[in-house]
Amino acid sequence: MIDQLKNAIESTVKQFRNDPKSFLSERDIQAVLFVELRNATRDLRYTYDAEGANHRFGFREPFSIHPVTTEYHVPVGIFDVAVLSETPDSALDIWLQPCRVGIEIKLWQPCEREPPYYKDFEKLRRYQADLQAKGRAFMGIAMLFVHPCEKRKPTAVTEEKSGDAYPENGVALHLVTQEGHWWKQDSGPSLTE
User: What does the buried/exposed string (b/e) look like for 88-119 if buried means 16 or more CB atoms within 10 Å of the residue's CB?
Assistant: First the structure.
């Protein structure tokens, strides 16, 4: 699954870098990433039982779903793109299952203030801490795409590669411009401190 995720992100980054003016909103990037990831994992299905919370919704037999989804609700908010955990939690509704991967996307358009991508990063960190307390691994990816006409630089991430871009159990912040793709893995209490 991790290789498919890397390939989907790299393909999305390449499409943005090749033609950034075709991405007019964050939802455009989200849609491309979702399709890339869903296509890369088209045969992937996770089986859920009909016990617990799912039983009350009429599920009587085990059922399978594709684990890649968008606008997914978690206790700390909503993830733009999520991959559900391969280990279900039968105490939770099917649409509230733990995530294995959460991706947040921001697009910095010209003439706008710097988007609050660090809040997305913090949201991913909070969710990771919650899952770690429950013995579950989580990968969080916060991505800032910068339109080529925006000449200012982001404050919390630089054009450097540090740490793992896709940490098995961690959070990374990616910066994507027409010139390149860089990342910074979480290494401390806060990027904004």
Answer: beeeeebeebbbbbbbbbbbbeeeeebbebbe
Residue recorded with tokens 């770690």: 132
What are the per-10-residue average pLDDT scores of the chain (193 residues)? 93 97 95 97 86 70 88 95 91 87 96 92 96 95 94 85 92 95 73 37
* Rounded alpha-carbon distances, angstroms, from residue 101 to 27, 155, 166, 171, 193: 18, 25, 10, 10, 25
- pTM more than 0.85: yes
Task: Please enumerate in sequence order all residues whose Cβ is within 8 A of that of 191, keeping only pairs 6 or more positions apart, or say none.
Answer: 118, 121, 156, 157, 173, 184
> CA-to-CA distance for 167 and 38, rounded, in angstroms?
20
Domain ranges (residues) in the chain = 2-185
